[in-house]
Amino acid sequence: MSSHSRSAIPSASLSVQRVDARRLLWVTPLTVLAALLANIIVQTLVHTLFPVTQTFSHLMFGDFVPLTVGAVGAACLVFAVVAQRARQPITLYRRIAVVALVVTLIPDALMFAETDPTNSTAGIVSLMVMHVVDAALCVGLLTTLPRAGGPRGGLSWTGLNGLIHAGR
Predict the structure, then answer these.
(1) Angle CA(119)–CA(121)–CA(124) in degrees, nearest 5?
(2) In a domain, 38, yes or no
(3) Is 123 a domain residue?
(4) Is residue 67 in a domain?
């Protein structure tokens, strides 16, 4: 197949991806709340199925709730910056999310080597599951719900500016 015939085939990865900034105003808190709810469900199931995990500090509300809010909030901020600056924000964000997920799993995996008696395989694996679920929610919600149609790329900040200046 010649390069000429390949370039004639439209590709989703070559099309410009747009994100509506106004939608990010509600998708961001939705993503944080969805991650919190998912983590609470994981924690509840794990504590029910594996009572030994009840002493695992990383599965206690005071530990994972602020970390979830901070990490998912940071993921939303990264998405907003990527959406504003990149021509292909959805594709780039998905790549960033995969790298970030791998990085967040490293400290969890290192816990298997620790001698802390409160660490259990079930607790560590459930913590890893929380990370995967949070990453899936971030990628799933942030790369689909705030999408905007149109021929131009980048983040549509005009909608956000209109909301800010409407109160004047």
Answers:
(1) 70
(2) yes
(3) yes
(4) yes
Q: What is the C-alpha to C-alpha distance for residues 161 and 25, in angstroms, rounded to an integer?
A: 12
Q: Is the pTM of this model over 0.85?
A: no
The closest of 108, 98, 97 to 130, measured between CA atoms, is 108
Percent of the chain with pLDDT strictly greater than 70? 79
Give the structural domain span for 107: 18-148
State the total domains in the chain. 1
Q: How far is CA 111 from CA 33, 62, 63, 120, in A?
A: 27, 19, 16, 9
Q: What is the pLDDT of residues 83-98, one digit of tens each?
A: 999 999 999 999 999 9
**Whether pLDDT at 127 is above 70:** yes
Tokens linked to 127:
């913590």
In sequence order, what are the beta bridge partners of 18?
Answer: 148, 154
